[in-house]
Amino acid sequence: MSEDDTLELEIKDETPKPDSRTQLEEMLEENTERVVNILRDRGYEIIEPSQKSELDKVSETRQKSSFEESQVIGFAGKGGVGKTTLSALLLAVLAKKENTRSILAVDSDPNTCLPGMLGAKNYSTLSEMVEGYKGGRLPPRKFRQEFNSLLLQNEQEYYDLLPMGKGEGQGCYCSVNNLLQSAFREFVLEGEYSYEYVVVDCEAGIEHIARKTSAFLSDLVIVTDGSKMSLNTIKNIHSTSKDVNIEIDSKYVLANQVNEEEALNEIEKISNELGMIFLGNIPEDKEVERLTRKGEPISELSSSPPLKKMEEIESKIIAVNGRSSPDKAK
């Protein structure tokens, strides 16, 4: 920062009591966050210091991490192509694999359909947590504590759940985005109890890419039904991720219930032109259609062509990233 580049800060006249260490820490943390946000707004690249994990309580079902990093797999695409169904299928595959230590299902679509497809019960959304701070202070430390508590509250039998819910206005978490990214990194990706697999049902379209809310993805699966609009969305997501410099290790294209060979050839051709990996096609299945139509959990599937195909896809994604499949790591 140059000498001429002044930084204006509002200094609050708050003097905590001598014995109020927590209040003092929150004041310091809050104002540090304000400085960081101002610098970010002015275009400075900020490298955040590592933060001490504040796990006040540890779930008995969560195990300490024994892997190098989380694998974060996101499903994106035009609305209505089946992202949520395929996210649920992958979660079902991961849950059935031996030695899978921990899974987090993230529903970033404001419509919050993924929990129903998973048969989840008694869960809270991030938007409900944030709503409690509307118009008031949002101390970073308090936010991180409540974020961790939300993960613990949303534990299901085979996975944990993080539904984003409805955001500010039309699904945007602008005012808490920096806090959310920090908490997500600390408790989901890098902490002592980080998750082995994170599956994200992304919101429809490209906005999540443009806003960089998909910046944590290691794998991006773009779903298409073969329609012209969904093929255009593949191209738009690919170009937008490059424009905003989102570093995603591997990008894939997955057809969903595309029956015509000519259409599948066109999808594969576009995938190759964009340098993306074509994962094939998820076949139609009456049982999947029935469960989806009735809003019943995909976990009810014991065996089906879509489930078998998703098992192949899961193995391929793991192989591309150089990770051994959990049930082979005995």
UniProtKB/TrEMBL annotation:
Superkingdom assignment: Archaea
Region annotation Disordered: where it falls in the sequence: 1-23
UniProt GO molecular function: ATP binding; ATP hydrolysis activity
SUPFAM superfamilies on file: P-loop containing nucleoside triphosphate hydrolases
Gene3D superfamilies for the chain: P-loop containing nucleotide triphosphate hydrolases (3.40.50.300)
Biased composition (Basic and acidic residues): 9-23
Pfam families per record: CbiA (PF01656)
Gene Ontology CC: one annotated term: cytosol
Sequence ranges assigned to domain CobQ/CobB/MinD/ParA nucleotide binding in this UniProt record: 76-298
GO biological process, one term: negative regulation of cell division
Name by which UniProt lists this protein: CobQ/CobB/MinD/ParA nucleotide binding domain-containing protein
Origin organism lineage: Archaea, Methanobacteriati, Methanobacteriota, candidate division MSBL1
